[in-house]
Specification:
With 790 residues, the protein is α/β, with parallel strands linked by helices. 39% of the residues lie in helices and 20% in strands. It is a multi-pass membrane protein.
Amino acid sequence: MEKIPQTILFLLLLVFTFVAVENSTAHRGGGGADEFHVGVILDLGSLVGKVSLASMSLAVEDFYSVHPNYSTKLAIHVRDSMGSEVQAVSAAIELRENYKVQAIIGPQKSSEAAFISKLGSVTQVPIVSFTATSPSLTYDSSPYFVRATLNDSVQVNSIASLIKAYGWREVVLVYDDTDYGRGILPHLIDALQHSDTYVPYHSGISLSATSEDIMQELYKLMAMQTRVFIVHMSSTRASLIFTMAKDAGMMSKGFVWIITNGLANIIDLLSPSVIEAMNGVIGVRFHVPKSQKLDTSFLIRWNKIYQRYNPNKLPLNKSISIVGLWAYDTVWALAQAAEKVGVSGNRNKRLQPHKNSTCLDSLAISINGTELLTEIVQNKFRGISGNFDLTERQLQVSVLQIINVVGGTWRHVGFWTSKNGLSRYLNQNELEITGSSASMPDLNPVTWPGESTEIPRGWEFPASGKKLRVGVTSSAYPEFISTSKDPVTNATRVSGLSIDIFENALKRLPFALRYEYQAFDTDGNSTSSRSYNDFVYQVYLQRYDIAVGDITIIYNRSLYADFTIPYTESGVGMIVPVKEKVDTNMWIFLKPLSQGMWFRSFIFIIYTRIAICLLEYLSGNRYLHGSFSLKQLGIRILMFFFIFEEKDMLESFLSRIVHRVWKIVLLALASIYTANFASILTVQQLSPALTDIHELQKQGGYVGFHQGSYMEGLLVDIGFDRSKMRSYDTPDNFHAALSNGVENGGVDALVLDVPYIKLFLAKYCKGYTMVGPIYKSAGFAFVSSASSIS
């Protein structure tokens, strides 16, 4: 009887154990592990969405086949955003309300991620996206957002280095007129400016743009001289752009197309017709190192799952794209983090509703969201895409790859790292490159659009467009500029130093510039029309785009026009006749040396002679000792004043050294004296008749100047009476005016720019000299419109 209660107790214990096991099995879904609910939001109508879904499904299978004893297992709940921000947010709310998902993978677009990241911040649910690349998604604005892909700003330096390596100086940006397309612009433009690359035009393509609108924009781009285009667009829009660009003839020789990583990363997923249209394009993409995990068996298993979801699609035989690899590694990272957090912490707390609350306020907060986020961003491992490191809440990138689309596929051109720049190869640790950086020969050859192997120069003369109107006018000195009309074509022909400098400057520009010369008053019928002030004013009136000639930079002209840097020396001087000056002074032989020099020389000679006599006397010279006599006195006087070397008279070694030094100094003085005396008797016979312009003005003298120049105003400012000023237009007239003198209708002096004076004196070197510069000027330069510079 006592055994019956024990039997009953044993049976009850067995029943309770069985019930507990059944409840535990039911709670774990029959799989032996706790379910960790994760939401997935993708655009399942896009190829990227389909590839990503297949990769994540395979990742779940592979992860738990490698870790069968894990206590957690991801339960994936997939929702289709259909490319709509509203649909994506609605799906995220539904996943959180109905399945209490602890993390959301996706969404696919940056605009969708911007909205859902706000939901993640409210509910403390990590949002992990492997496709949202917009730089606007930051930790400050979205603390629960993790970017398992590249930030678009990471690639801008590689693009700038690529452009610099090929020597292109101008690029045009073509982008989606969306948050995604515009997000990279500030970073890209800044990087291009640091590499001295100019962006003359931005082409933003609206999502509402029709095919006609896009073709019109392409024709606009083709009319420009810049031939280098950087494309930052979604795959759908980019496919249309390149297809239409090919139809417009913009995928031919001379054009350069560069695609960003957003398109280059999924180049394998584009249709063959689009890839064929993109032949010759170069791009920057994430570098996937070689891995044993990415073997043929992996692609076969992936294609089986891909066709399970897409039975009407053909298998992908090339590659599953970098985006698919990131989707695979993202699931592994989340699965590892879920195991560390565990389901035991999978709890939620609902906020207390309050007045004016929204549907977001009514969502439950994930208690373990912060812990899960920490585990995700601290997780580092070697995935199939390479090193998968999210420590800074975005994928850390060490290497980017440069590719060239050719022959229906792409091929390797080179690598780029932030530390070493561009190169063809990586070393073994794949963190540093080999060879010098930012040099074009370090890269593999590229097949450019039109199947050309010749590196495009980056610019061409546009099919249509205005020419630069270059105004020119003849100078009094044709050495600077001379203009004439071609009798056959009636075109303006020009020559001279100003033209040579202008045309050489244009050759150094990194782009083509079409121009034509237009003469300013070639006939010269009107004096006023030949004025340089009027010539410069034509640029202000926009008759010319630029004025080329011997134009002096002065203040009043700069009020309505801009000048280039000067290309000649500056200054204003006078040309005056020289007069002969014959000096009949009997003391002319003393003029070669100054009074101070004569005095110092005399003291030096006396000092030297005393030193020699004293040294000889102390050494016991026989000529200086003995009884006094007239002969002895004569010898002493001779020794004191001799100018030749008496070998028998100097007995001291020291006195002979002093004597030699004295002779050297004497020879130097003699040479200086001879040179100066010869100069006095020849060169200095010619002296300017006038040395001060103010003196000429006070004396009421006549002065000449270059007709049409600013000298007339300068002379008036100095104080000259207009009746004392005469203008001339040729060097021969200048010469005649000076040689004739005031008595015969000439002038006393000419006031000209220094470059003119040097040319005048080179031709008429006899009888004239230059005085000055008497006034400072800025030199000759070219003129452009102040409004055209901006």
